[in-house]
Write a sequence for this structure.
């Protein structure tokens, strides 16, 4: 049997709305378009034998009113009369025998990513997003709807259907046709809460003035229910969910690039291993939580070679006391720590996302939601899945290259190099997205 860990949760109390805004580092005035010509200016280089007088006459003949020679070269920057177009002056200069070349003075802009400080009402509680530098990463990449993350879990509150309601902070997030491997139908609705929380870490609507944020909020979600309303599943059902994702086609191809498995249990399984291998062979990156026993043994499926095993850190980048560790551990991500409040906001440092309200679930209702905090490696895994989706969105087409980017840009937290306590270290989205020559 596979079980998700029983995470702790607290409700975020209703408080006065805080005014946050989207901020772009750089000039507050509109910038000119990169590569556009600077108005009224051109650059010209005369042949070496041309005298200063001849050059001056040539420039005046095309409407030049002022010229400045480069401090360390022979070329001139020329300012034109207001009624003379740059293109016409360049054409006329190129026809003169004295001129070696003439061209517009094109504008270049710094290649610096902006920083998105989202205005979501409870972003202040998301220490996890700040810990990994999400606002800087969002200045580089926010995700493409053509990149899909399959969330295999208790389902996702993604639609209004029967007693189920769509969670309120999805915005324009696209959901693909999912599968309910527990009940054998296409309605992968969440009758617990865990799957919605996990999916929201991946792609909850961001910068919409509501709720909290998702790391890859521009990407799409495929909900796949493999755990029942008690959070329990088995190898057969989980493998069936993986195979559904692997065989899925839309327009002749499979848009799913990442599978997140925030679930697990001790002991390997040939059924699960083969399902994971089939997904890997299909080019899908599989990410899973390492387990919440605080033990030196990684749970499965995270323990398989073809799965990225994710452990959890708290706000101080220390390994969370519940997080499993060992030789199969690959990466760390924020998982929360109920016993800490490092930012002194009177809320435990948990991972806060939207999910069905457990108080109402106990009454059989699926129409009430909360922004609740949970802790666990289940919460850490979707951070890695989301970053992988951002890397696919960035244009990396190979899952092996995405995995390499994740591992090579992680922050080394333990002994130098990979170690059993922290794996390759804590994910760094900005570094991964802009590093090792992969940024477009």
């Amino acid at each position: 049997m596979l079980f998700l860990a029983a995470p702790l949760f607290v409700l975020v109390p209703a408080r006065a709305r805080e005014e946050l805004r989207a901020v772009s580092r750089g000039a507050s005035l509109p910038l000119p378009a990169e590569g556009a010509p600077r108005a009224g200016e051109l650059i010209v280089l005369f042949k070496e034998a041309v005298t200063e007088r001849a050059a001056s006459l040539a420039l005046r003949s095309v409407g030049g009113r002022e010229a400045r020679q480069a401090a360390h070269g022979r070329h001139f920057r020329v300012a034109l009369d207001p009624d003379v177009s740059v293109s016409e002056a360049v054409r006329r200069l190129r026809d003169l025998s004295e001129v070696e070349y003439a061209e517009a003075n094109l504008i270049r802009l710094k290649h610096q990513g902006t920083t998105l400080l989202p205005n979501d009402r409870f972003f202040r509680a998301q220490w996890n997003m700040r810990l990994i530098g999400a606002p800087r990463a969002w200045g580089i990449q926010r995700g493409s709807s053509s990149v899909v993350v399959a969330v295999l879990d208790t389902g996702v509150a993604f639609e209004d259907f029967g007693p189920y309601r769509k969670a309120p902070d999805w915005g324009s997030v696209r959901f693909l046709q999912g599968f309910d491997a527990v009940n054998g139908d296409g309605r992968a609705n969440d009758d617990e809460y865990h799957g919605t929380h996990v999916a929201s870490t991946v792609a909850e609507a961001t910068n919409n003035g509501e709720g909290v944020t998702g790391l890859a909020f521009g990407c799409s979600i495929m909900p796949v229910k493999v755990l029942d309303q008690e959070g329990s599943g088995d190898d057969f059902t989980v493998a069936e969910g993986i195979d559904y994702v692997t065989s899925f086609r839309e327009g002749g191809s499979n848009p799913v690039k990442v599978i997140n498995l925030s679930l697990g249990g001790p002991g390997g399984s040939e059924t699960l291993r083969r399902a994971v291998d089939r997904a890997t062979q299909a080019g899908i990156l599989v990410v899973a939580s390492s387990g919440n026993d605080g033990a030196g043994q990684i749970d499965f499926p995270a323990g398989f070679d073809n799965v990225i095993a994710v452990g959890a850190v708290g706000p101080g980048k220390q390994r969370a006391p519940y997080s499993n560790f060992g030789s199969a551990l690959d990466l760390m991500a924020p998982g929360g720590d109920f016993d800490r409040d490092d930012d002194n906001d009177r809320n435990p440092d948990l991972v806060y996302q939207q999910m069905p309200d457990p108080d109402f679930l106990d009454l059989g209702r699926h129409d009430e939601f909360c922004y609740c905090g949970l802790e666990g490696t289940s919460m850490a895994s979707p951070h890695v899945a989301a970053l992988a989706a951002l890397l696919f969105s960035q244009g990396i087409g190979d899952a092996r290259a995405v995995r390499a980017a994740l591992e090579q840009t992680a922050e080394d937290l333990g002994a130098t190099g990979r170690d059993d306590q922290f794996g390759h270290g804590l994910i760094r989205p900005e570094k991964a997205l802009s590093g090792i020559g992969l940024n477009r």
User: Anything to note?
Assistant: Confidence is low (pLDDT under 50) at residues 5-34, 109-113, 436-440.
